[in-house]
Amino acid sequence: QVFGLSSAAQVVLGRGNFGQQLSVNLAFGIGVTLGIHAAGGISGAHLNAAITITHCILGNLPWRKLPAYVIGQFLGSFTAAATVFGLYYDALYDYGNGAFTVTGPNATASIFSTYPAPYVSMLGGFFTEFTATVMLILGILVIHDEKNNAALKGTQALLTGMVVLGIGLGMGMNTGYAINPSRDLPPRIFTAIAGWGTDVFTAGHHWWWVPVTAPILGSLAGALIHKLFIDFHNQPVPESGNEKGQPVLQSS
Question: Which residues cross the membrane (predicted)?
């Protein structure tokens, strides 16, 4: 998350002279890829509370592990926000003339958490986050679907980062594509503490709860879509050979 937030800081504080929206999209994709490489062998790289909750509901992860996973995600995200705040403190102070604001021409809160565009209704914003998370979980599930056309071993992290990049490229305009409660809420709490105040929770007609709930519902819906339209139609993976006893060729 340090990659994504610091890129957002550079774009905003640099007033467009040090990157554009594409920079933020690429940085978040790179951050996801590296995060999966760092934690994949230890925890399965649970970087998203919505996906962790979905795996618990599906029975892929014991519920007793949920608190530790979510606390770890939140602490990592909170620390990332604090790191970027320290890295760009001087620029933040200069940009806002000493004030940290949530709305207005010199607003900087959007560096750390997502806020809806002025034209977006609450329903439209909720649907955007819901749909974007559906696409995220579908991408992750098909990449790892061993019964279908799964990604080659070793490429899953890169492809997952590309899914996040694709979501940012196509669905980022309305709401900033939080698609992850762990990505949005901890930095929002940090900004409330660090000087932006409670406006971070009231801005956008109390927008803060949408990036928490819509991704959870979107992840569940995406998992259901994958189960109904892909997983139920997959052929079982043969263990040793085909029905005639002939060896099954393995693709490299």
Answer: 26-47, 68-89, 119-143, 155-179, 206-225
34 lies in a domain?
Answer: yes
Among residues 12, 8, 33, 7, which one has the least CA distance to residue 165? 33
Q: Which pTM does this prediction carry?
A: 0.91
217 part of a folded domain: yes
Token digits of residue 67: 């608190």
DSSP code of 111? G
Give the 3-state secondary structure of residue 181: helix
Whether 234 maps to a domain, the answer reads: no
Q: Is 30 a domain residue?
A: yes
pLDDT tens-place string over residues 96-138: 999 999 999 999 999 999 999 999 999 999 999 999 999 999 9
Over residues 223-248, the pLDDT tens digits come to 999 999 999 988 776 654 444 333 33
For residue 191, CA distances in Å to 30, 51, 112, 201 come to 24, 25, 8, 10
Where do runs of H (alpha helix) occur along the chain? 2-13, 21-43, 49-58, 66-87, 89-95, 122-143, 156-171, 181-191, 199-206, 210-229
pLDDT of residue 238: 62
Residue where the block lists tokens 């139920």:
232
